[in-house]
Amino acid sequence: MSMLLFSGLAIAAGYIASKVFGDDSSKTQSPTTYTYTPSGPSVTQPAGAGRKTTSPKRSRSRAKTTSATTYASPASAAAPATGGGGWMAQCDMGGGSGGTAVFGDSDGPVTVYDAEGIPLQLGIEQEFASGGEGTVYSCPNKPKFVIKIYKRRILENTAKRDALERRLRDMLAIEPLRNNPDVAWPLMPVFDENKRVAGFVMRAVKGTSMRALQGSAQIKRLFLGWNRKDLALVAKDFLDKMQLLAGNGVLVNDFNPANFLVGKDHRVMLIDCDSYQIPSRDGGEPHVATSYFASHVAPELLRNPEGLNRPRGPEQARFGAAIIAFQLLMCGLHPYSHKNGGTPEGNLKAGKCPLGLKSGCMLPSGWYNLISYLPFTMMETFIRMFRDGHGNPAARPTLAELRKQVEKFLFVMEKDPVRRDLAPKSPKPKSDSSNWSEKNNAA
Amino acid sequence: MKNYNETTALDVSNPAPRCPVVLLLDVSGSMSGAPIDELNQGVRQFLQETAEDEAAGMSVELEIVTFSDKAMRIVPFSPIANVNREPRPFYANGMTAMGAALRMATQDLRQRRELYRKTGVSSYRPWVILMTDGGPNDDWEAAAREMREMGERGRIQYIGVEIGHSADHRTLCRILPAQPGPVRLQGLRFKQFFRWLTDSLRSVSASTPEQENSVRFGDIRSWADLANL
């Protein structure tokens, strides 16, 4: 049945299959142009949630000692550590397959098949990341691809497996994303020995976790020679990628910065794409993903967590994308962080955002200088997003508006190099001549 | 002379939520020999591996308090990246002033969290690690009660590790939260314990403060003797 479901895509996938499953690597050509390979240590952060879980990408040497991070939707949130067992209740004890090779478990070799039944064995040597939903393997001798295999507990659940199959089928049908070299999008399904879907092949992408772009000191250390202009270029590409997704009806639910990789050339690469909300080809309800990153989720969803289990709207994805864009431009500062506040998500839920006048709260210590150099119109756009748009999703600016503001910022930074400083010693002078260019641009 | 780089000032240009970690380490005379050597190596490894992690290196702020005849703040709260990774080793001698150490840690934690709040820096639940091969022989009950209550209310992650078989298990059960109580280290597996701690802090730092209750830590059987739990 699985084979039948995917038969329409088998021809398109055939080309890729020959690259992944075939044994003549010398003839391999990628279906698109890309140069990235599976990354090791640079992707060591949790890669966002799968349906409900997420885990750190693990380097092989530490794989057995690295614990998983689980972000559950409120409906199924894990018991707090204050319950029986204290901190020990959060420890994974006694898991694993006991060394037996079990399909879909991360500790044993597995054999998967392409649509034509050509086998490929994946062993522990190939495993480089494992999460709550599946394990990602590099392809033997095919560094341009990786294979995600779903966990056994998911594959054994008929309803979950069917849902995954439908989601995968609809993802494979979105060509602009399949063909984008910066998107780790499913390229073809793989099957188990019973010809049931077991996972998929995707493009390998490599970059540094966006999480690294926080704090001027760390940015300077990890991205030699970068200044604020580089961050704005990353923000621009990030918004382009979000627009590309939105243009294809796809929404990001989990704005964990670790789900986005950044290249030295300012390109943003998208990983963990099977946690996105995918439109249904038959016009029904979209394929929902319930994962989220609490500090980057629209306030109406934080206040009413039931909404996390239902299809989300573009204005909600816009809100999360805007937080990422703001953080990129502000060296990682969260737009709701403020003095005498709580956690970013607590502040977000309460709607306390220090941007603009009469906000009722103050920016955290030490951030005024950096924020003062943002153009006025950009600040205005962020205020519309985070203050006006907090209780009124319809007031949230579009991704295109945000992108336009980033372009303007790039323009004024070109004219005024002072604005490129990642750690300005003083705020922008009130009578700064660059105000002229700002107003000129805003006009 | 500074053994560790004691840069205690809060780096406000770092936007990452902070995870304060206090190591309360017994360096009384009974720790001499292999235990103190292994502890020294474990702490070094912890400093190195935690500071190198992209997320934990930005979030973890460490304080080390040792206790023997008195409690000593060897490292006041500092970003872990600023702590000297090759510190002078601890030497074991004297008694076990655990109560004084608990008092010091409680006070320092309170001050640090207040500093976070005032400056607008968000934070995760603090971690307090108590490692001992004996039991307190100073005035400990009031300080221990306060810390234990914080642990029982889930305000801190409070981990008690017994070293060897001469640890005063009964007293430690009164010092630590009832669940899970003190956990005995398997032999001298300090390095395995600190590796587990680093990995746990990596996972916490990669989450958000309000989702940290859902974070999963690794299996503790690499270092813990669970026979008596």
Describe this structure in words.
- The complex is a heterodimer of chains A (443) and B (229).
- Helix content of chain A is 32%, strand content 11%.
- With 443 residues, chain A is α+β, with helices and mostly antiparallel strands.
- Chain A has two domains: 2-71 and 88-203, no CATH class; 208-442, Transferase(Phosphotransferase) domain 1 (Transferase(Phosphotransferase), domain 1, Orthogonal Bundle), CATH 1.10.510.10.
- In chain A, helix 7 (228-247) packs antiparallel against helix 13 (399-415) and helix 12 packs antiparallel against helix 13 (399-415).
- Chain A is globular.
- The model of chain A is unreliable at 24-83, 95-104 and 433-443 (pLDDT under 50).
- Chain B has helices at residues 34-52, 56-59, 98-119, 141-152, 169-175, 190-205, and strands at residues 19-26, 60-67, 71-79, 127-132, 157-162, 183-185, 224-225.
- The termini of chain B are far apart.
- Chain B has a single domain, classed as von Willebrand factor, type A domain (Rossmann fold, 3-Layer(aba) Sandwich), CATH 3.40.50.410.
- A seven-stranded mixed sheet of chain B has the order 3-2-1-4-5-6-7, sandwiched between helices.
- In chain B, helix 3 (98-119) crosses helix 4.
- Chain B contains six helices and seven strands; from the N terminus they run βααββαβαβαβαβ.
- The longest helix of chain B has 22 residues, at 98-119.
- Chain B has 229 residues and is of the alpha/beta class.
CATH superfamily of the largest domain in chain A: Transferase(Phosphotransferase) domain 1
Distance between the termini of chain B: 43 Å
Radius of gyration of chain A: 23 Å
**How many domains, in number, for the residues of chain B?**
1
